[in-house]
Input
Amino acid sequence: MQGGSAYSRVPLEDTGVAGARVVAGVPLAEGPTTSHASRSDPTTTASQDWRARLKEPVGNCCCCFSLRQGVIILASLNLLGGVLSWFASVGFGILLTHWEFVKQWLQEHKDPSEDEQDFEDMEHTLKTFGPFVAVFMVLVGIAQVIIGLIGLHGAVYRNAKSARWYYLVSVVGVAFAAARSLGDGPLGFLVNVCLSAYYAKVAWSWYIFLAQQEGAERGRVNLASPQYFPPPPPHDRDTNLAVGGYVAPSVV
Output
């Protein structure tokens, strides 16, 4: 770090190594987090190490995608879910407005074991709750699209405020995933909640990185502080590769 200063801008440059970037001459890099220090300490227990890692941002979305790419994918899925909700609401509206035709077709192709009372109960349910369901689908679609646009704005334009809102909504999404999975059995519930929680942590990690980056550019964040992403080792100015073979994962 030149001049001994812990404050600097943070441009990312390509290292020539597939899927990797390093920070050129600055202290901030989104690579291994501070848990590496505790894991190298022989006095750190496994439980302490595990708890420390849970509290830290992740370095990338997964083995294939960076944090930024992961957030873009998750936000795109939100957009897709919203559009599908709108299509579902349209289909449900068609069912309500053309119920007599649908009922006649179902009666002509019904199973011999089905009773006429089943169709009457279905008709009563549709006429009672159908309009509310259709409106609910439209509202869910609008919410999903707005959430997706916020996530994309935070990732594409590297906007920390949008990233913060996206991760807050992702945390709320964990509760919705838990409620939605109550009827899926213990395994389905656990899988859905764990996946939603990890997606929320990816969104949170991207926000943490952007917040640190913006703070560094304004000279307000001490990047040498251990609660932030650790600084990379010194770089060779000719090759832009970290001395000692360390290469920080890419965030872009």
